[in-house]
Structure formats: C-alpha cells, structure tokens
Amino acid sequence: MKTSEMFLTTLREVPAEAEIPSHILLLRAGFIKKLVSGIYSFLPLGNRTLKKIEAIVREEMDAAGAQEILMSALQPAELWQESGRWGVYGPEMWRIKDRNQREFCLGPTHEEIFTDIVRQAVSSYRQLPLNLYQIQTKYRDEARPRFGLMRSREFIMKDAYSFDRDEAGLDVSYKKMYDAYSKVFTRCGLNFRPVEADSGAIGGNNSHEFTALSEVGESEIVYCSECDFAATSERAEFKDEKQLPETAAALEKVSTPGTKTIEAVCKYLEADIKHSIKALLLQVAEEEGDKVSYVLALVRGDRQLNMTKLVNALDVPEYLVSMADEEKMSSVTGCVGGFTGPIGIHDCMVIMDSELSGSVNMVCGANEKDFHYTGVCEGRDFKADKVVDLKLLQAGDPCPCCGKPVKTARGIEVGQVFKLGTKYSEPMNCLYRDENQVDHPVVMGCYGIGVSRTMAAVVEQHHDDNGIIWPMSIAPYHVDIVIAKADDPVQKALAEDIENKLEALGVEVMLDDRDERPGVKFKDADLIGIPIRITVGKKAGEGIVEYKLRRGGDMEELEAAEAVSKAAALVNAERRG
Ligand code: ATP
Ligand code: MG
User: Taking the mean position of all CA atoms in its chain, how far away is CA 18?
Assistant: First the structure.
C-alpha cells in the first residue's frame, strides 16, 4: 500500500485528553479517532491491527472447539427480566425503546441471549457440550470512560459461552478456554498473568482474570514469589490473624479528645493498633427512590476494607453501595463521625471482618464526640449481624497459601474466564434431558476477551519515546519501505521492486512514497511502529538499501535481494506470534 494513497492522519501534538502512552500513541499514529467521550473510530491502521487480534482470537477459539456465531447488539428487555438482571444492572446499561415503546438494551454482555438461543435448540444430553462465541461490539455507559480503548463506552469483545451437562464437563470447558486465552495473549506479545478473580456473590474459586502487567493498569494483583498464589486484590483471600489469649478487662468509656483517626486514638491511648476496631460508614441505595439503608463495616485498625468483599457479602449491585453521608447516617443510627463503633449503634446493619471474632480488649469509637471505649470484647459488648472476610490483602501481608509476604503489581484486565454454573440456565429454564429422561439445567461458563482493550495493552507494553513498537503478529503492516527522495526514479523503481517481491512472499508492505523530507517519514515510521523499515536512498543505484528493526539494533546496509529475504524470514518466523 502506498502511503501517499493511504488515509493516514498522524499528529505531531499530543491530544489534550490523552494521558497514558497507549491512548496518546494510538491517536497520534492515526490508529483511532475520538467521536465522543469513550467512543472511537478505527482508522485504516487501527482497523488492520484490530482485525489481526481478532484473527488470533478466532484461530485459538476454533482450535479449542468453539463455534463462532454473531448476535445482535440489540437485546430485548424481556430476556434480562427473566434472568433478573434488568433491574440490577444499573446505569452502565444503555437502555432504549423502539417506536412501540418496547424496551431494549445495547448489549453490555450476552449471557441471556446465548442462554436463550441454546435453550431453544438444545434438548438432549447428546447435544452437549457446546461452546459458542462471537466477536462483537459491546456497549457500557461507563461512569468514567478514559484512557482511549482501555475503558471505552463502545468496545469490541470476544465473548464465549460454554454449555455442559455437569460441573466436571464445565471444568473441562473452562480449562480449554483458560489455555486458549494463554495462547491468544502470548501470540499478541503480551506479558500477562492469569490470576484468581472475584466471582461475585456466587463465591468459590470460579474465575480467573488475565492481566497484562502495566503501571497504568486499573487492576491491582497480589501474588507470592514463594508459591503459586496470584489473585486480583478484589478477590484475594486474607487469612485471619488470631489474637493471643488474654484476660478480658472491663468495658470503659475514655476521653480521647480530637482523635478522629484510628492511628491517633491508638497513639493517644498507647494501644496496639491490632487491638483497635475501625468502623466504616456505608449506605445502600434502593434501586428506585431516594431511600437508603445504613451499614457499619468493622475491620481491625491496621486493615483496609475490601469493597468487593463487602458488596458480595451484602449481595446487592455494586453501584448501589457508597460511603454514607455522615450527618444523615448519624441522625438515623446514632453514629458520630470519627468516633463510631458498634456499641449502641441502631437501625443499621453491622458487618464484621472475621478476624474480629472473639477479639478481646479492643478500642473502638463510643458514638460520642471525643470518646472511645476500651476493653471491648466481641460477643460480650457487641455482636455483628454478619461475619465474613472483609480485608484487603496488601503488599507485605501474609500469603493466604504459604504465609510469606505477598507483593502487588498493577495490570490491565484483558480477559476473564468464569464458571457460571446454573446462574442463568436455572432462571431461564435452559434444560437438557439425560439418558433416563430426567431434565437438568445446563451448566454454563462464560469467557470474555477485550479485543480493543488488548490493542491498547499491547501498546502500553511495546513503545518508546518515539512511538509504538508492534509485535509482528499484530502489526498493521510488516515492512515499511521509505523512499528517501520520492521523485527519484531510480529510488522509486527499486522500492517498488522490493515491495512487489515482498508482497509475492506474503509480506504486508507500506511504501512511503510521500513527497516529504526523509526525517518526516522516519518520524512517522517510528510513531506507527512497523516492525521492519527498509530505506531506499542514495545507494539505490548500486542496489543497496538500509535495513532496520523498529525494536532496536543496528541499521544495516544490504543488497536489496538480501533485505527482501531477511525481512521475509523474520516475518515468517514471527507472524503467528
Ligand atoms: P472492568 O473490571 O475493567 O470494568 P469487567 O470485569 O466489567 O471489566 P467483563 O465483563 O469481564 O469486564 O468483560 C470482558 C472483557 O471486556 C474484560 O476482560 C475487558 O478486557 C473488556 N472490557 C470490559 N469493559 C471494557 C471497557 N469499558 N472498555 C474496553 N474493554 C472493556
Ligand atoms: Mg472482568
């Protein structure tokens, strides 16, 4: 493809709204263009890379035995009402009505729609197992769309759904997808890590996220270098540290003037922070209307509250839970900001971290300004309505598997695999009949890859100050031939000859024949990030060209034929990823 004929729109300036390298570079190199917040168009280069990622995904999904279909993005509300999600999905769902006022949404995900199609077609165990997938546009009206393709409101996802007779079958389907995902991300050139992930209120060890390691990532993972443990921070289990036995003292209300934080209280009372209880004030909104209910969450003073664990324990949609309005909560429950504790609080659910079970001689707020209690004993002085692990596992905390201190890293969630069980098949009556004519709900799994997000994640991991450095497998073109002087007939003829020879070998070539200074073309070449650059310049008359890799290494002067075979060999070695 001649660059002079391409719809190419590279930018010199950093677009104002872009903060992270992938967003800046994909805009600057003309891969994507913003339409409105969180909604992007893919320009020719971006579209080529996107299609290559899709092709890798497709190959690995097909190899794993999944079958591709294509569903509509428009989904009728009735199916979501059947599964019970229409009411709980929240403001992320784009809801629309047709001319007859029938409700639809633009699909954020497709569990209901796949379940529906399978329940209509499958009746017998003989038709299982089954794995169906699609590569399709998804819509989520994200609260904070940002970082370009990373968190957009319209994005491309590969979503797959497996249908099995039983848990054992699901385990097999899940493993196949897990392995296929590892191959996909490896082939895309990502440095990634599969980690245990949150599986919502269902709980259990039912999900993994594939995380591309990156400082700009929005996910945090915790892992152990001594054993295999790796999980998202949201999910990571935290083993309780048991208090050593001690004699219970009497409950005493003590003056603690001006000590609003747990650290300040402990310092003032000369108490060990492990002997203190931190209280967090939260509210749960109703799905409709202004009413809220209050929740007091308790963790040990030196721990942090894990919001995901709390939301799972409350078993309500995440978007309904937020920090409480302190004054309003105070008027209902008697709590006092900075001095809140479980003793004497009313009209509010108390949920306690399991580590506090049976704790004695603790310090906590007295629900009175400038006062705390000491000698607080769980069970004797207060009781929680619910007791679960609510702690956030942080760097240095003990590994839940082996006890060694864990480490943390940031990453981008590029995919997730999930064992759904009968979460959808049961309410939606997706049944199969076994050998004995008995009906059972189909056991399901769901598996997502953020195809467009993957493109951004690759750029995050593969760039330098000058631009993108595409891995061969997903580069929009393999070779960029730069003609130093576009109006020089000798240079032009040699460049076109190289182009033809490479194309005959199946290599994808961009030929920069624009009437621009060489410097401009080199800058664009670096920005766009084509893996191999062949420059045809002054020595064209002698049949000599310059050969250079975008990833680094020296520039070489080669005979044109040698440059062709060298480029073709590298492309063939790396194009599959
Ligand atoms: P996140 O936690 O980042 O919001 P999610 O867990 O809600 O993502 P899934 O429902 O698991 O996302 O969707 C499958 C995949 O789709 C994700 O692993 C991610 O790669 C991608 N994805 C999800 N939301 C977005 C988005 N707003 N923009 C781009 N890709 C997304
Ligand atoms: Mg996810």
Answer: 19
